[in-house]
Amino acid sequence: xxxxxxxxxxxxxxxxxxxxxxxxxxxxxxxxxxxxxxxxxxxxxxxxxxxxxxxxxxxxxxxxxxxxxxxxxxxxxxxxxxxxxxxxxxxxxxxxxxxxxxxx
Length: 104
Prior knowledge:
By secondary structure, this protein is mainly α. The protein has helices spanning 6-33, 38-64, 69-79, 84-103.
């Protein structure tokens, strides 16, 4: 039986999505409007670490769930766009149910 890779991927993807929005919506304005570049340093570092974690979880899910290439590209591309992880999360819930049904 193949362990379910979806819960960890979804959690990390959503955390990465939140960190991206914080970076773009709070840290960048603080840097340029309030002269606080440390905000980007902190938010950017957090976002970078979460993105690397996302890539590791993405690779694990792609491998364990035997994703077709269009699905893998769709999930990865979503991580590059603001709000992308939230949009693709709905599909990942469905793919998780399909994965679990195949494991039975």
